[in-house]
Structures are given as structure tokens and as C-alpha cells.
Write a structure and sequence with these properties.
single chain; 116 residues; mainly alpha; 2 domains; 6 helices; flat
Length: 116
């Protein structure tokens, strides 16, 4: 069980408390330059697609941007998604796999509860 997949509110609250301050508005404002650097790179990459009149998957690029912003906020460096333009080290794929498992578990538990 982890902070993102748990449905136990008490567990979620207890796990969230130590890290919540890092993502408060006051804390985020002190890291605005780091976020701006991601935004600048993101816009530059989109500009490259426009200059080449090349289509791209905006949804994927928004995820790359989000991962690099989280990297800047958590580790003070981008994770490389925007630079590479791809899923770095299969992180996105791994998260997607965890979400599928979480959904299946939720459906199975819900059906089980209704059948008993």
C-alpha cells in the first residue's frame, strides 16, 4: 500500500502529513524559477514541432512536463523527460501498470462486497 493507491483515509493522512508542506503554495513559490525552467523548455520543444510542422502527442508531452516539474520540486533537477521526449526509465509505464492493478483490485473488492 502506498500514499497514492490507498483507500484508507487514516493511512493516507498519516503518510501525507510529512510531505504536504513541500507542496504548499508558500513552498512552491520559492521554487518558481525551477518550474519556470521546465515551462521554458516545454514551450521550446513545442516550438520545434511547430517550426517543423510536425504533429505530436500533446498528452504525452504534458506528462513529460509534469514529471520534470516534480523532479525539480523533489530532487532539484529535471528527470529528463522533456530533454529526451520520451518515458525515462519506464517510469510512466510502471505507474500505468500500478493504476491498472489498483483498478482491478477496486473492482474485485466492490464486486465481492456486493455478492456477499
Amino acid at each position: 500500500m502506498n500514499l497514492f493507491s490507498t483507500r484508507d483515509e487514516a493511512y493516507h493522512r498519516a503518510q501525507k502529513r510529512p510531505v504536504a508542506n513541500a507542496y504548499s503554495m508558500t513552498s512552491l513559490l520559492t521554487k518558481e524559477d525551477a518550474i519556470d525552467s521546465c515551462s521554458t523548455l516545454f514551450i521550446y520543444k513545442l516550438g520545434e514541432f511547430a517550426d517543423q510542422k510536425k504533429s505530436f502527442d500533446l498528452g504525452a508531452w504534458l506528462q513529460y512536463y509534469a514529471f520534470d516539474v516534480v523532479g525539480e520540486l523533489s530532487f532539484a533537477k529535471k528527470l529528463g523527460f522533456l530533454d529526451k521526449g520520451e518515458d525515462v526509465d519506464g517510469m510512466m509505464e510502471a505507474i500505468e501498470g500500478m493504476l491498472v492493478i489498483t483498478i482491478y483490485t477496486f473492482v474485485a473488492e466492490t464486486l465481492s462486497d456486493r455478492l456477499t
